[in-house]
Amino acid sequence: MRDYAPLAEHPTLSVQDLRIAREGKMLLDVGQLTLDGPGPTIILGPNGAGKSLLLRCLHGLIAPDRGTVCQGGEFMSEQLRSSQAMVFQRPVLLRRSVAGNLDFVLRRRGLAWGVRKAACQALLVQGGLADKARQSARSLSGGEAQRLAILRALACEPTVLFLDEPTSALDPEATQEIEQMVLRASRQGVRVVMVTHDIGQARRLARDVVVMHGGRVVEQGPAAQVFAEPQSMMTRRFLSGGLMV
Ligand SMILES: Nc1ncnc2c1ncn2[C@@H]1O[C@H](COP(=O)(O)OP(=O)(O)OP(=O)(O)O)[C@@H](O)[C@H]1O
């Protein structure tokens, strides 16, 4: 059984003239950005660079002051938005069992009991949580909780999966498990767009990279190229661990 079946393989995401300003300060200013490779796309940059704002705009959680977001060549709509999923730094889980958290999402999709049961079991196995199905989601460890949050996102059969620093609070082993889930989703056709501070993680996961600084995209390209020959001074400084002020 396929774990989930995206509607389209790696749908293209693009933004045009995206701007957000608050109290006279430009927080996000992205003229043109297209994500059309297979991904995963990793958004890198220092604190306050605008990474989360860009991710939230792409997912429609924040309305920009101006500019547009398109998916698969269509302007963002509620229907397209509902085909996307997002995972945050701190897992958002319901006060239910582990299986109950997954069933909640599967039930919302209108799936029959037998289909839900099979899908839930497949997801639990995929996330290494089969033996914790009846346990309260609130009692999971940080790594397990984040795995469940990702499984919940995948239970929506998303076309696009946004992840905002999902491993920043996790140890290396838990991080590795999350990275495997992310790569697997990407291989199965989900467009993965992930924010991280961790350059090592970006090197492990990224097919392409977007580097941000001061609300702008300072560099974008294939990961191998950006890491080997960064074009922007900001990227070079960031990759070398220099302070970016
Ligand atoms: N709702 C808001 N109102 C005012 N300013 C905001 C708002 N949301 C974000 N900002 C500001 O926009 C800038 C970019 O924030 P953002 O969270 O996107 O940065 P980031 O690159 O994700 O940083 P970090 O890595 O620290 O999470 C920051 O200066 C932040 O304070």
TrEMBL record:
Domain of life: Bacteria
Source species: Falsiruegeria litorea R37
Subcellular location, principal: membrane
Gene3D superfamilies per record: P-loop containing nucleotide triphosphate hydrolases
Family the UniProt entry places it in: Belongs to the ABC transporter superfamily.
Keywords, sorted A to Z: ATP-binding, Cell membrane, Hydrolase, Membrane, Nucleotide-binding, Transport
GO cellular component, one term: plasma membrane
UniProt membrane topology term: Peripheral membrane protein
Compartmental location: Cell membrane
Sequence ranges assigned to domain ABC transporter in this UniProt record: 13-239
GO molecular function: ATP binding; ATP hydrolysis activity
Cited Pfam families: ABC_tran
Keyword Transmembrane helix: no
Protein name: L-cystine import ATP-binding protein TcyC
EC number annotated for this UniProt entry: 3.6.3.-
KW Membrane (keyword) present: yes
